[in-house]
Amino acid sequence: MSIFLSPVPGNSLAALCLFMLCTWNHASAAQSSKSTQPETLSASDTIQLLEVTITGGLSTRVRRTGEALFTGTALNEQGLQLSGISGKGSVYHSMDLLPGIAVEGPDAYGLSEKSVRMRGIRSSFSGMTIEGFPNYGIMPIGARDNLYDMENMNSLSVYKGASPADLGTATGSKGGAIDLRFRPPSATFRAKVDQSLGAHNYRRSFLRIDPGKAGKGPSSFLSASLTEAEKWKGPGTLGPRWNLALGLHQDLGPLELSFYANYNDMERHAYRELSYEQIQDRQTLRQTDFNRERNGQPSEDRYYYDYHRGSYNNRDLLFTARLNQNAGYFQLKAYHSTEDAQYYETVQRGPNFFRDTRSRKIHRLGLLPEWRRKTGSLEMAAGYWLERFDNNAQVYNSRITPDGLTPIGYGSYSVNKTAGFTHSPYAKLAHQGERLKIQAGLKYFHYTDPATERYPSASPDRLAEAPNPHLYTRKMQYGAWLPSLGLGYRLNLKNELYLNYGRTYMRPYMYSPVIALYVNNQDAFKQAGMVLQDIFDGWKMETSDNLDLGWRRSGEILSFMPTLYFARHHNVLAAVYDPEVGLNYLQNAGTLHAWGLEVETYLRPIKSLTLLFSPAYTAMEYQNELTRNGVPIGIKGKQAPATPRFSLKSGVFGKLGTVDYHLMARHTGSRFGDATNQEKISAYTRWDAGFYYLFTSPGLPFSLRAGAEAANLLDTTYVGAINSSDDSQQGAATYFAGAPRTITLLLSLLF
Predict the structure, then answer these.
(1) What is the reported pTM?
(2) What is the DSSP letter of 519?
(3) pLDDT (0 to 100) of residue 57
(4) Burial 155-180 (b: 16+ CB within 10 A, else e)
């Protein structure tokens, strides 16, 4: 499609400018009307955004339009800026200032895969939307957090427990929900140019132009970015990553039309996963990575760096038409999203080593009609999420030999008989009295996985003529009712209490590991009279009951927001031993309980200084015992892996004349790498700092912001990301070193 531009050769900021020159003439015509004041939103813009209340800190408490309670947290502009350079292109890193959220990645720039947990639940189980449109993929399942330039975002809102019924939470909301909103096109000319340079040959260039509105025509913006770096240890690169975005908005009386397009293309090498034994030595932790060359030994060549890389391409088209009425509106949203990715990793099967080529092609089409109305103190809403998806995920095997790679073929090649569908109707009702607030919602989530045939390989380059009947799976359907209820009471203008309940869900996942297990152990399953469908017949939808009790105090000097929460997670997918086949395989057999306390505190002793203090306590444990090979593994009552019981985010940020500064500390308590709590990881504290100089002059047509950031200021050596399932045993987890001290320089021009 014409809006998706091909990447421009070269690595400089000038290269990015080429494709924007066509907008300059129109921009110049509109420049005479530009304002030096901060951007503001029109009334038509704010009806679609979240309602907020200012806390005076890095974040605001939010409620969605049509609700009565402030149950979410949104990072304001200052909060998004303080997420640092890693937050420029990563949604998850932008959230890292909030209590109860743990974000770890192998690099300081947010370009690698990440380990993210929200109240102890992995980010794969969190929903994400952009302008209300669901963002997700498969293999692995979950949101794609690096598709957007966060400079283009007007807000980032997080719901850690119960999620609003009207939030299209994609594959699941068991781990909370995230809602992103684009910064809408400006009616007057704007232009922003950012350039960042840092350690390990890091480069990031970002441009955005809002040409301004000409007469009664549409307002628009066009942006582009190029980001790349070398890995800080071992061979390989992170990038290049190209992002392009386009936004259009047109007012036609009561009818408003909006269109957004987003393009993302990235290549990157991976960091090597380390074992628990390897991370005991600090030098090994900091230096060990993949090999730069092959030496002809398959056991060593499995660590060749070019066998661990990937290419990822995503495109999104998002359209909204809203008809405003006196007391509400009717809107229709439509979207088309695609993902085309291919990445390599190595595995050992018996005595042999393989490089697996994993590819996924995803096409999603969706509609989201919604109606809202307000009558007196009552607000009502009803809507529907309908999606048609065609998900294609395959794994091709090549054996690693002394001479290189020998193609083997597909273990199985999946062919869907039809498309899959998601249906999710919802309704909400809210009452706002002078002091008492009540809201209720009900959503039904229904998911249909299509019937699928799977073909074995007849040769490395040819599939068998007939599918394997033992690998056939029929159409499978899953559904869950998801109620929510909230009560709030305003004590006075500054203080409010609330109680919020909601049931969340997680649709089935981990298909590929189960299929691979069956393919590699077909004889054992056949002897037991089992086909692949017999395993999936035992699967259920995961659901979670969440309860939050909160107090919100907002003031000029002190903002204090403690939240006590409880959660019970049902039908958790876990490995279960089947004596009929003598194997462990995944079934929805677990029950997890979680509870904790989060306290978000901002203190402003003077107008130009703010202190942050946000501790969190998280307890998450299995309530039932699981077995491996018929033997209890000792998981009951143990803390979930990769989840510290105590964490703290604190710091100071403020202004001295024309200089902004911040000093932040993130303390992560001790964790375990396994669910049996045998592999203990020590606590650590990471310090980050930054300062920025703002220069403006009445005689210049632009303002300039220059600064520097230091991530891991004290160069602390620590274990960062932990890859581990909630029921993993000792020896199953893998670990990554946290990035060393990383200095980045930033320059920004705002026209």
Answers:
(1) 0.90
(2) H
(3) 58
(4) bbbbbbbbbbbbbbbbbbbbbbbbbb
